[in-house]
Write a structure and sequence with these properties.
The chain has 330 residues and is of the alpha+beta class. The protein is built from eight helices and 14 strands. Helix 2 crosses helix 3 and helix 5 packs antiparallel against helix 6. The radius of gyration is 19 Å and the shape is globular. It comes from Candidatus Enterococcus lowellii. It is an enzyme of class 4 (lyase).
Length: 330
Amino acid sequence: MYNGKARAYTNIALIKYWGKKDKELILPMNNSLSLTLDAFYTETSVSFSKAYTEDTFSLDGVLQDEKATAKISHFLDLARKKAGLPYFAHVESQNFVPTAAGLASSASGLAALAGACNEALQLGLSDKELSQLARRGSGSACRSIFGGFVEWEKGYSDTTSYAQVVPSNHWEDELAMIFILINDQQKDVSSRDGMERTVATSDFYDGWLDAVARDIQTAKQAIANKDFQALGEVTEANGLKMHATTLAATPPFTYWSPDSLKAMNKVRQIRQNGLACYFTMDAGPNVKVLCQKKDVASILTALQEEFTEEQLTCAYAGQGLKSLEMEVSK
């Protein structure tokens, strides 16, 4: 039996990935830039054995259905091919992230699975190669291989599309992100389906691609200069532009809820009152607030005027993929 276990942390894109140019290889239409965080993560173990007769996948202690297992099996096939090992596998994953609620659980989940496979099969993959492998499971997973600020280079082939650290001289240690949990239920439109519909039908999509390339450069310059206002402004604007593309899709859709709008308005109000903070949203209703560590307590107090304490979670910069010791096999 070949065993491996790994932990990967979620990342939140400041400059968004939205749309694929190659669905099989998961090559994105644009570069993206994220911040890996410490509050939400996934731990995944994998066991390959000659005795297994099929792949099985358990998430949070619940055996998953055929559709969910098929996605994992497709990913396992990539690892098996690299190792030259035909054995079936059992995957156990525990999400410390609400699944499919716009909190990037697929990113941490597939990054952790990549790490667990690398450990179990002794593939000896470099971080760059792990990023390439994780990408094949979930695009944003390639960024969760690394800690801090991370840029995903869109590339043009399997070997040229991967994530890498954005030099920051540890500036991310001064920053924080507050999660406003509007809804932790399954989304009506998945990220994958939403991207596909937007790329195929949105009249705004070409404008998005033109803008996002500029936004990446603005964000990287802000990081280099440790300019929080510039980073916050481009983060907020980029997120709004991404969501605007969904409104022009056919049929149109949105990930926003009434409470999402309430949260965004509250962040604007806090900022007008003198506390620097900026919001962003991924493919889900939850709102993330980028701020500086020194302002966290004051911003949380202000947010509690509209949201319960249970809805608010604070995260700080997180680390990259970590291998874990497997528990003794039963």
